[in-house]
Amino acid sequence: MRETLRRLLRQRKAAVGGSILLGFLVLALVGPWLVMDPTELVGQPHQPPSRAHLFGTTGQGQDVLAQTVVGARETLAIGFAVGALVTLVGALVGITAGYLGRRVDDALTLTTNVFLVIPGLPLAIVLGAYLPSGPMRMVVVLTFAGWAWNARVFRAEALALRGRDFVAAAVVAGESHARIITRELLPNMASLVASSFIGNTLYAVGAQVGLEFLGLGDVGAVTWGTNLYWAGNDAALLTRSWWIFVPTGLCIALVGFSLTLLSSAIDELTNPALRAPPSAPVPAKAVEVSSEVPTSGVLLSVRGVSIEYMTASGPSRVVDQVSLDIAPGEVFGLAGESGSGKSTLGYALLRLLPPAAAITQGRILFDGMDVTALSAEAMREFRWSRVSMVFQSAMSALNPVLSLGEQFHDTLAAHGGSSRAASYARAREMLTMVGLKPELVHAWPHQLSGGMRQRVGIALALALEPKLVVMDEPTTALDVVVQKELLQRVVELKERLGFAVLFITHDLPLLLALADRVGILQAGKLVEVDTAERLRTDAKHPYTRLLLSSFPHLGASDVAAPTLDVLEHAALKPAQAALTGGRR
Ligand code: ADP
Ligand code: MG
To answer: Which ligand 1 atom lies nearest to the CA of residue 336?
Structure first.
């Protein structure tokens, strides 16, 4: 919590918004003692600013400065009180509904929805007519009219959190509902609570000023809203007495501005991805690469590629002058410890790098075509039809609300595929090809196991018959038995369809069993590239040897029967025939 506060203070938006708001709070607290009585008639009406009355006088002859300063107190007090109450009521109702579910949820959600469809303004007017006047009336009216939106937001958040493992763990541990709501759910919504509070305060100030301006507040009180109400009534606009309404208007605008800045600062603080990088790295210019660019027998040629991320502490080079070639139909393995830049390189092939990253050097040639120089439109056409990708987490790579057939249709239609019927036919064919039942075309992702989803991911990647498939740790999330079946299937399909594979994994033994050639990436540098056989027996680079020695089955004594041990390590033994037999 203290760390969060410290970071909030370091942020520019938070600093500016916070200081403005703090200034107004101090003004509201001590200001009224420093100025004259705002209701006293002290001078001629409609007097422009003068030495006696720095902000001039109102249409009735009161001091505008005093009215502006004193008005801050009630306006901000009501604003923050309503902001807090609306957040509290909304959070309690929403979280209770979302967490308890069933009948409680039905009843509370129905109530919430009823409140949402009642227009706020008439409700406020009717309520206002029955309540005794005074600041509390405004608080009650605005809370009544505003809590329902919050309940909806908090309910959605509670529903999302309810399914998480830590809540299940708390239930298993025997914690009470009240404790789970206050100790497990609420702390996880801290940022939502904070940004809701700021947003609700903004709503409260705006709605309060609006109601009072219409004369629906307590017109005898001194608030920013009634200031504007009297300015209107006393014909400030007709007489062009701008000094009567501009100070109050400016204050309202500034408070709104500071609250908006704060809420955006909270968003960025709790979601670092929203923060803009200082400036993106400069992409490589299309320089001719002098080194011999092989044209025949090479499908993908990566020439001296460097990739940099822009971070707060400056550019950081994550891929450093990597060159490699992949032949048609080849399985090229890319190994290296986590963080060595494997995914970054894989994503770069499809130009899927995040905005903070750029290829700062080198070229990527596919079939002789410069991928780094393709236009956005050409790139869209290129992706998936020439190079496709299987993502590590099939759980999140599939859209949970679309049936499998629809996901195939989306992909096929994006590349000029024809009818939905044709897409579904292709989907059945592809599902069969990866060893799934064609009827699954109507299934939703949540109905499949992890292994089945990853098969669907592979089927989708192959749907447009690409020449290269980038597989980024496609089996890391799966158990070894499923992993084995899946890889067997990939090798079979590769033999049949003839695509090349860039297989990315930290599991070197797996690669040695699967790949034709393997490249070892260490801290962004490709330190060694060789055939799987040679790497197994005489790896040259110390880092490769280190990687190999970290897998006990791959010691030097295993040289006699390396493949067998390798496969044993990866629990691939039964697949050995399929893997080796099919490939060599
Ligand atoms: P691997 O796939 O080999 O595990 P990655 O390619 O995902 O590695 O990451 C390589 C390096 O890039 C890591 O050191 C990581 O810290 C850095 N990195 C990844 N994403 C970003 C980012 N958005 N900003 C800065 N650095 C990043
Ligand atoms: Mg990775």
So the answer is: 3
CA 372, distance to chain mean position in Å, is 26
For 336: left if phi > 0, alpha if psi spans -120 to 50, otherwise beta; the answer is left
Burial (CB < 10 A; 0-12, 13-18, 19+), residue 466, is buried
Domains and CATH numbers, the chain: 2-274 (1.10.3720.10), 327-353+367-401+444-580 (3.40.50.300)
CA dihedral over 569, 571, 574, 577, signed as positive or negative = negative
Q: Which residue has the higher pLDDT, 165 or 197?
A: 197
Confidence class of residue 562 from pLDDT cuts 50, 70 and 90? very low
Residues in the chain: 584
Average pLDDT over residues 353-376: 89
Show the tokens assigned to 12. Answer: 């520019």
The span from the CA of 581 to the CA of 567, in Å, is 13
Q: Is the CB of 318 under 6 A from ligand 1?
A: yes
Q: What is the pLDDT of residue 224?
A: 93
How is 499-518 classified by DSSP, letter by letter?
-EEEEEES-HHHHHHH-SEE
In whole angstroms, what is the distance from residue 485 CA to residue 496 CA?
17
- Determine what percent of the chain is predicted with pLDDT higher than 90: 38
For the ranges 4-18, 139-153, 170-184, 554-568, which has the lowest average pLDDT?
Answer: 554-568
Lowest-confidence segment of 266-270, 409-413, 462-466, 541-545 by average pLDDT: 266-270
* 324 CA to centre of ligand 2 in angstroms: 18
Q: In whole angstroms, what is the distance from residue 51 CA to residue 3 CA?
A: 48
Q: Encode burial over 216-236: b for 16+ CB neighbours within 10 A, e otherwise.
A: bbbeebbbbbbbbbbbbebeb
Question: Which residue's CA is the closest to the ligand 1 atom numbered 7?
Answer: 343
- The CB of 341 under 6 Å from ligand 1? The reply is yes
User: Which ligand ends up closest to the CA of 336?
Assistant: 1
Which pTM was predicted?
0.67
> How far, in Å, is the centroid of ligand 1 from the Cα of 273?
14
